[in-house]
Amino acid sequence: MKIGVVGTGFVGSTAAYTLAMQAVGSELVLVDHQPALAQAHGMDILHAVPFSHPVQIRSGDIADLHGAQLVVVAAGVNQQPGETRLALLQRNAAIFSALIPQIVQAAPDAVLIIATNPLDIMTHIATRIAVAAGLPASRVIGTGTMLDTARFRALLGEKLGIASESVHAYVLGEHGDSEVLVWSSVHIGGIPLADFAAARGIALDDTLRAAVDHGVRRAAYQIIQGKGATYFGIASAITALSRAVLFDERCVYTVSAMHSEVEGIPSVSLSLPGIIGRNGLTGTLKPVLNAAEHAALQTSASVILQHIQAMDAAA
Amino acid sequence: MKIGVVGTGFVGSTAAYTLAMQAVGSELVLVDHQPALAQAHGMDILHAVPFSHPVQIRSGDIADLHGAQLVVVAAGVNQQPGETRLALLQRNAAIFSALIPQIVQAAPDAVLIIATNPLDIMTHIATRIAVAAGLPASRVIGTGTMLDTARFRALLGEKLGIASESVHAYVLGEHGDSEVLVWSSVHIGGIPLADFAAARGIALDDTLRAAVDHGVRRAAYQIIQGKGATYFGIASAITALSRAVLFDERCVYTVSAMHSEVEGIPSVSLSLPGIIGRNGLTGTLKPVLNAAEHAALQTSASVILQHIQAMDAAA
Amino acid sequence: MKIGVVGTGFVGSTAAYTLAMQAVGSELVLVDHQPALAQAHGMDILHAVPFSHPVQIRSGDIADLHGAQLVVVAAGVNQQPGETRLALLQRNAAIFSALIPQIVQAAPDAVLIIATNPLDIMTHIATRIAVAAGLPASRVIGTGTMLDTARFRALLGEKLGIASESVHAYVLGEHGDSEVLVWSSVHIGGIPLADFAAARGIALDDTLRAAVDHGVRRAAYQIIQGKGATYFGIASAITALSRAVLFDERCVYTVSAMHSEVEGIPSVSLSLPGIIGRNGLTGTLKPVLNAAEHAALQTSASVILQHIQAMDAAA
Amino acid sequence: MKIGVVGTGFVGSTAAYTLAMQAVGSELVLVDHQPALAQAHGMDILHAVPFSHPVQIRSGDIADLHGAQLVVVAAGVNQQPGETRLALLQRNAAIFSALIPQIVQAAPDAVLIIATNPLDIMTHIATRIAVAAGLPASRVIGTGTMLDTARFRALLGEKLGIASESVHAYVLGEHGDSEVLVWSSVHIGGIPLADFAAARGIALDDTLRAAVDHGVRRAAYQIIQGKGATYFGIASAITALSRAVLFDERCVYTVSAMHSEVEGIPSVSLSLPGIIGRNGLTGTLKPVLNAAEHAALQTSASVILQHIQAMDAAA
Ligand SMILES: NC(=O)c1ccc[n+]([C@@H]2O[C@H](COP(=O)([O-])OP(=O)(O)OC[C@H]3O[C@@H](n4cnc5c(N)ncnc54)[C@H](O)[C@@H]3O)[C@@H](O)[C@H]2O)c1
Ligand SMILES: NC(=O)c1ccc[n+]([C@@H]2O[C@H](COP(=O)([O-])OP(=O)(O)OC[C@H]3O[C@@H](n4cnc5c(N)ncnc54)[C@H](O)[C@@H]3O)[C@@H](O)[C@H]2O)c1
Ligand SMILES: NC(=O)c1ccc[n+]([C@@H]2O[C@H](COP(=O)([O-])OP(=O)(O)OC[C@H]3O[C@@H](n4cnc5c(N)ncnc54)[C@H](O)[C@@H]3O)[C@@H](O)[C@H]2O)c1
Ligand SMILES: NC(=O)c1ccc[n+]([C@@H]2O[C@H](COP(=O)([O-])OP(=O)(O)OC[C@H]3O[C@@H](n4cnc5c(N)ncnc54)[C@H](O)[C@@H]3O)[C@@H](O)[C@H]2O)c1
Predict the structure, then answer these.
(1) Are B55 and D247 in contact (CB < 8 Å)?
(2) What is the DSSP letter of C127?
(3) pLDDT tens digits, residue range A127-156?
(4) Which one, of C308, C232, C227, C241, lies nearest residue C275 by Cα?
(5) Contact B226 C41 (CB under 8 A)
(6) Which of B134, B249, B282, D81 has the greatest count of CB atoms below 10 A from its CB?
(7) Dihedral sign for Cα atoms in the order B245, B246, B250, B251
(8) Contact status, residue B26 vs residue D244, Cβ threshold 8 Å
(9) Residue C133 in 3-state DSSP?
């Protein structure tokens, strides 16, 4: 069970640390185009291993991914002052154009987990390139709204006084501003949210909903303002997803993947509940939504499609 | 975090092993009225500790529960040839009449987890006695249908090709023949079961439902026929419940507890979804059921009430 | 990561439960010549899975071990009244003669972990048969004195008031009466035992040593007297060993294996510290012993050799 | 089990994340004099919780540590351009003079774990202040050379092809340049290093020793050069130490604490193997060293003493 992590900034390195600590995989290879950075993280994580289960860790280059069953991609560049969103996207797309074929060549049996933002576009690009390089599309998975779903569950749990483990709630669509919190299907321990709230005397009013919505949707901004980047939540999401792949768990997670059609919008990558196993995404579930949620998901799909089209037009 | 286990037969000993291996609690005290049995289990578990996290384990008597924050009660006797169910119940009730006051005296701050069968009646008895001894009723929790819920989720998961972790399904009522599988609220990764099955091309017909129903309801019988007793599933349920108490998790589990009224039936102990934390059961959720399920839950409550009344009449 | 467990009595079933709970492996296949027993254990363990990580569990026959990377063998028969030790051994040898070739055929890439007693003889037999069937000898490992080592560490830890995790002590030789507690190399957190005891004011006298020696050597007898069999400690040992193989950990454990020579005794299977990884036993460490320990290890080797010779003569 | 983390820079925040993920403790309170930073980390960690066990996380101020059983202190300032080491030390000492009494007042039953550098001096200062505020000295523990010990084990493991888990090696003295790698007592699975190396054909020459020594002693510098700070290793060390306290494990770790005398040097704080339990440091082990190691430890103690004296003189 060899795992590669490509791009060992905050996200990639914290994911590698979490994978090591939770003993998912037996061998970790860290790759970054700043090799000294990957090496430093590798050393720091190595020093954590005696406190956990034995795992082998080293840094290397793409060729060292040979034989990996899973490759996490968190490589990316940051927006420069004055740079447009499209320009940034093009730079990240250029990175993927170079990286993904090399990864597929080195690890042709791997499942790829994409974490780089803008998540859905990068997943779309990665899937196109990987498919061209011979990988089935189902082996490219974006972390998508897994983190947003975790935020939704955690915040609802806090508001309701319930462990997030017992809060079943999902965020779909774009990993970004247009994402859709599926309020209509929230359940707490088997009970629909409205019934739960009524019975517990909790006012499920617009204020509470808006606070949770804001907390989920603006979480990244708030965290980035406070600490410059977000990485603990996403690292745990990557680790859960990696586990699901390597242990063929067939868990359902809200992951991003290329869909031929979503709410009438063709060929777009975004998050729907997906079944994750040894071969990647082995099935997508069609969510049950109310009219407003359908519309919001369609809007979200359109937003992503526009970005893809803008990018393609600029190419 | 001191935990006592009273009654170290198959269930109590396997629960103690699981608690030790998962490092829930830091000190385990095993008590059985066959002290040699408790001691032998204590030794066997002690030899597993070097492969896990450090935990202290010893056997002792009820007085050694002093200071325990949690006491698991799995003490009981088995049906003798020709013995009626009521006679058996009376013998177990006699055991609890002696045990519970001693436990409460030794560990007045503990939460009690009851595993002895017939589970709901024994939880009812334990609650009455514990309350008389000064413990709040909310600190007495029966494992109830936690195991049945796990069976429901595991079997559905197998049939649907999904990790049980992503199957949200609940069994309520009696831990026994009259239990209620709440099919109407089953969700798979946020999707109602019917929609899920339709989309995945799985025929949710009576045959499948009957197979699952039979698998859940008859599991104990089948296992007992094959191996004489059931203990792995219940030991894991006890461990999860113990974790929820000791770590104040506020998870929702289908536990048995004394309710003043269920579906019109007064003063009966049975399983509903409950919120579990440091002080035991800190809230009960009112399930949303269809008409047939309401009726079945009422029947289940009646069955339990009749047993309680028969027992009280015979006392 | 598919694991087979052949022989699902107390030891095999508890090992399977522990493997599932600690999420070592992703697929477990239980095999017993009493299929109803294997099936009942499989069901019971399945019901524990929703409280842990997703693992697939089923019962089957030897052919279902196809593709397993690891097979635990805990199949065996018990001594009949009046039966000699040799006669019992012959019956277990007969079982292995039938079983091992089938296992190797079904899972030619597996590492075999042997737990059946008399452990060292059964490991010897299994190795011979497996080698004849084409498996390298290094892929057959007996749990050996792993359990005895755990007992030594746990008991010393209790006597010294130290976590067994920080007690470094080893038992070598036969998993049985002639085993050798290597007192001369016991270290506590890097400090030789004698220095540790002197500094802490603990009298390391013959009484304490005899108590620990007795506790280690007679543990199985005491536990069997109290509960009929031992299984929690050995199940955790099997799980640790399985982890070391599947995750290529290269941990050192005192395992039984066939050695060309031990203390001048030729071709004998017994426990020495061994390095465990993906390919089984990848190296054996030569222990540093004092004269008495050398002699005791030689005696232990002779005892085992005699049993092997007696068995071969009777064949 | 409430844990406070004071100072949520790289080290404190990664420790909090690790504590949450490994479910040590049930409640985490993050405190930093940049409240927005503590809050952002709290949010990020909260989003990881749904992938792990339920833990409560929030940020707050020192008063919110009320009732904590453990407080991790990783608050500190960084060297300014042109600032002398002594001047830096004085600034950190000033921070502790303000912080520690407030922590002791808020959480009078807590054990304090100190991680701020220069570690041994800061532990010395913290102990003095805490004792003045009424805490027993044994309740103040510096992480000391726990990290260096982990580095020693990890590097030796890599060089020897053995899991670090089976490498028993210790670093004592200063957490810093004068630290002492105790080569004389290194054992691999019970075998002295020299015997192990000889038997495995590994040349234990000066080159290998120097490489390991350099790797351990210069690890922090190398990592800081590559990534700006070290935090994964130390976060895991803090988590292991926290576990040992909260679960009363009585593990042996090389922690820093105030000793009345070390190698003839009076009243100095540095690392020796210590027994860690619910009340903090419950015993210190006297290491067995060769002459060179004794001398090196004495030098290390002198170095620390000089820093303490310089600081006291400047006060
Ligand atoms: N999916 C999510 O939920 C989620 C959450 C947080 C962050 N992110 C995204 O993850 C990405 C990484 O974030 P970060 O905070 O770690 O950023 P970062 O800048 O710290 O790390 C990016 C790393 O990628 C490396 N890199 C750049 N080009 C490379 C190449 N060609 N080959 C190898 N490595 C290369 C850089 O050297 C750098 O170390 C960003 O795009 C970020 O927006 C996603
Ligand atoms: N709740 C569930 O889901 C569930 C599942 C499985 C079993 N159970 C029940 O758990 C109970 C235990 O089952 P088991 O298989 O371990 O049975 P068992 O017979 O192996 O163990 C019962 C133990 O209780 C001890 N005991 C009896 N009276 C005692 C007393 N006064 N004080 C202390 N110990 C006493 C006995 O010595 C024995 O060791 C049974 O009632 C069983 O039906 C419940
Ligand atoms: N190595 C150790 O440290 C250690 C510790 C405890 C027990 N043991 C040994 O482990 C073995 C198992 O112990 P147990 O308590 O589980 O015994 P058990 O009698 O409960 O189980 C043995 C199982 O093997 C099965 N079996 C017999 N022949 C078989 C065959 N041909 N194919 C498949 N299955 C077959 C039986 O049906 C039975 O279920 C015994 O030999 C015991 O002495 C070893
Ligand atoms: N012991 C070890 O093995 C080890 C290893 C690595 C780092 N460290 C040390 O740990 C410390 C923290 O390192 P870091 O990388 O996290 O540094 P950092 O600068 O990222 O974090 C320090 C934090 O302390 C906070 N702080 C400062 N004064 C405070 C006060 N009065 N109250 C509350 N918070 C205050 C700062 O706001 C900052 O967030 C440093 O001293 C570092 O040298 C020790």
Answers:
(1) yes
(2) H
(3) 999 999 999 999 999 999 999 999 999 999
(4) C241
(5) yes
(6) B249
(7) negative
(8) no
(9) coil
Say if ligand 1 is within 6 A of residue A9 CB: yes
Q: Which amino acid is located at D37 in the chain?
A: L
Contact C283 D191 (CB under 8 A): no
pLDDT value at position A195?
A: 94
- The C-alpha atoms of residue C275 and residue C268 are separated, in whole angstroms, by 18
Chain D interface mutation, best of C245, C285, C294, C297, highest count of D Cβ atoms under 10 Å: C285
Query: Is the whole-model pTM more than 0.95?
Result: yes
For residue B16, pLDDT beyond 80: yes
* CA–CA separation, B56 and C157 (whole Å): 10
Q: What string of H, E and C letters represents the secondary structure of C42-71?
A: HHHHHCCHHHCCCCEEEECCHHHHCCCCEE
Task: For residue D78, give the ligand nearest its CA.
Answer: 4
Active-site annotation holder among B41, B124, B175, B259? B175
In three-state secondary structure terms, A124 is helix
- Among all residues of chain C, which has the CA nearest to that of B48? C233
CA B267 to chain centre: 19
One DSSP character per residue, D204-268 reads --HHHHHHHHHHHHTHHHHHHHHHSS--HHHHHHHHHHHHHHHTT--EEEEEEEEEEEETTEEEE
Which DSSP string corresponds to A142-196?
A: E-TTHHHHHHHHHHHHHHHTS-GGGEE--EEB-SSTT-EE-GGG-EETTEEHHHH
Residues of chain C contacting B36 with CB distance shorter than 8 Å:
225-226
- Report CA torsion sign: C187, C188, C189, C194: negative
Neighboring chain A residues of B287 at a CB cutoff of 8 Å: 190-191
Q: Token pair of C286, please?
A: 């030569």
What tokens were used for B206? 């009576």
How far apart, in whole angstroms, are the C-alpha atoms of residue D14 and residue A14? Answer: 9
* Cβ count within 10 A of residue A76: 19
DSSP three-state, residue A284: strand
Residues of D in contact with C173 (CB under 8 A): none
The answer to whether the CB of B95 is under 6 A from ligand 2 is yes
Tokens of D279: 């009340």
Q: What CA–CA distances, in Å, run from B179 to A128, A191, B174, B204?
A: 51, 18, 5, 21
Tell me what ipTM this predicted complex has.
0.97
Tell me, in angstroms, the distance from the centre of ligand 3 to residue C113's CA: 13
Contact B26 D55 (CB under 8 A): no
Number of A/D CB contacts below 8 angstroms equals 142
Could you tell me which chain B residue has the CA closest to the CA of A285? B196
User: In the block, which residue shows the tokens 């510096």?
Assistant: D142
The answer to whether B253 touches B276, Cβ cutoff 8 Å, is yes
Residue with tokens 């949010």: D43
Residue listed under structure tokens 């791009």: A7
- To the query of whether residue A175 is one of the catalytic residues in this protein, the response is yes
Q: Which residues line ligand 4 (CB under 6 A)?
A: D 6-12, 31-34, 37, 74-78, 95, 99, 115-117, 119, 143, 147, 175, 229-231, 234
Inter-chain residue contact B54 with D247, CB threshold 8 Å = yes
Write down which chains contact chain C via at least 3 CB pairs under 8 A: A, B, D
Neighbours of chain A (3+ CB pairs under 8 A): B, C, D
Ranges of chain C with pLDDT below 50: none
Ligand 3 contact via C95 beta carbon (within 6 Å): yes
CA of C76 to the centre of ligand 3 (A): 4
What pLDDT digit, counting tens, does each position of A10-51 carry?
Answer: 999 999 999 999 999 999 999 999 999 999 999 999 999 999
Which SS3 state, helix, strand or coil, does residue D94 take? helix
Phi, psi of A167 (to 5 degrees): -100, 120
Query: Do B150 and C48 meet the contact criterion of CB atoms below 8 Å apart?
Result: yes
D294-304: per-residue pLDDT in tens? Answer: 999 999 999 99
Question: For C173, which DSSP code?
Answer: B
